[in-house]
Amino acid sequence: MNKQILVAMLVGIAVPAAASTFNREVPVRQYGKEAGMLLDLGKISLGTLNDVEEKKQYLSTVQLEKQRIQNYTLRMVYENAYQLYKQGDYQRAQELAQTILSIDPNFKQAQTLATQANHMGTYGTVSESQVLDSKFKEALALYDSGRLVEANDKLNEILTIQPGNSKALSWKRQIDRDIAKEYARRGDVAEKYGNYQAAVDAWYNALLMRKDDPALVAKISDAETKLRQQQLQDNMKQALELYNKGQYVEAYAVFERIKKIQPGDPRVQKYMSQLKNEIAGGYYNAGCQAYNAYRFDQAVSYWNNAKKWGADAPAMDKLIKKARNAKERYIRNQELRAKQAEIDAKNAQLAAQRAAQQAQQKAEEAQQKADEQDILETITVDNQVPGLSTTTVIPGALPGSTTTTTTTSTTTTTTNNGMPGVSEVVPGLSGGMNRVSAEASAASRAKYIEGLDAFNQDDFERARQAWIVARQLDPGNTDAELGLRKVEELMMIK
Description:
Elements: H1 2-21, H2 34-43, H3 52-87, H4 90-103, H5 108-123, H6 128-144, H7 148-161, H8 166-192, H9 196-209, H10 214-244, H11 248-261, H12 266-292, H13 296-308, H14 313-373, E1 402-404, E2 413-415, E3 423-425, H15 438-456, H16 460-473, H17 478-493
Antiparallel strand pairs: 1-2, 2-3
Helix pairs in contact: 1-3, 1-4, 3-4, 3-5, 4-5, 5-7, 6-7, 7-8, 8-9, 9-10, 10-11, 11-12, 12-13, 13-14, 15-16, 15-17, 16-17
């Protein structure tokens, strides 16, 4: 689009300059026509086109129209540049020609004009005939060597500088006939070997130079008929092979090409109708499978394609709506399941922690029971304490009490100053003490002391509980037994 705007500006500049210089009328671009066409084409919407192929074809048409408008505009600019050259304004002619080449580098006449204008601006007008003579000699040398196209280009350069050069026109007509003859010969050879496309191309090139040759027109028409039949057979073979392989979409595309080559063929129309049903059915079934596999977006895509290929639109729309609703429900259920799974995981973790704690507690209790029930080696009391005299103090008596033991007596009398009036026979010294472990005896003694401390603080209940435990640990702990009786009597008095 920028190129068209640039060319329009150049035309606006070049035309007034040329008009002021020349007396004869100079072609002037009609503003608003081609530019308006460009603007209109830019505003056209492609939304109403049915498929991608139609859009591509439409855009190709738009591009061709833009190219035609550009060529038309550049031709007008070239005419202005040529008029400036003929007038002797070589610098401006060269500038316009260079501008044309910046837009279209393949504009051969602009190339020739730019080169010649540069030469003339450097060496003066006297050298133009010398330049033309040099180009003419080059054209003849190329013609003699059989390089007809290059010779023709040289003659075109001469005619670009001097359009009315009779000598160049005469030789150009001769070369055109020779080129046309060569193209016709190449077309005949291509037709002989069954290459109808190459034959048609060659004959069309010949026809550009021999426009009034009816024989050439007949050859082209016959070759195009054969070419269509050949293309039709090749495409039909390819389409049937794709159809047999189950590649229905590809086969349908080939049948569309066949339809363009030979419109209205009933066999082609039948195949295309059958293919549309097959493709629509395939997309429908694929959509059902995707739906059942919870791939709802894919199912929607398949059913939309089925609708494009001729499936019942209301039925497909109903299925598409169903798939979208199912997708929403599925997502909600997945979220709920994820939350429930998270809750279950937390509950399981808490349960595992509780189980571990309970197991640890049971293990500790079992270990404690094992420690309590562990029977160590016991010592038998036989009324003879090694290393003691016949009279000794029994450990464990209440503070301030004295216990006298006589080896020949079967009883021991204890008077507890802390508990006046209490006397007790200590069993075991005469008849054998109950056997307890050393650990149990020590634990019982500790509990006794704990109870004694509570008793001295007038905390009778705590003393009572401690002495009960001491008696349980060691039934032979007479101090605990005595203390327990005393504290119970005091508690009853209170």
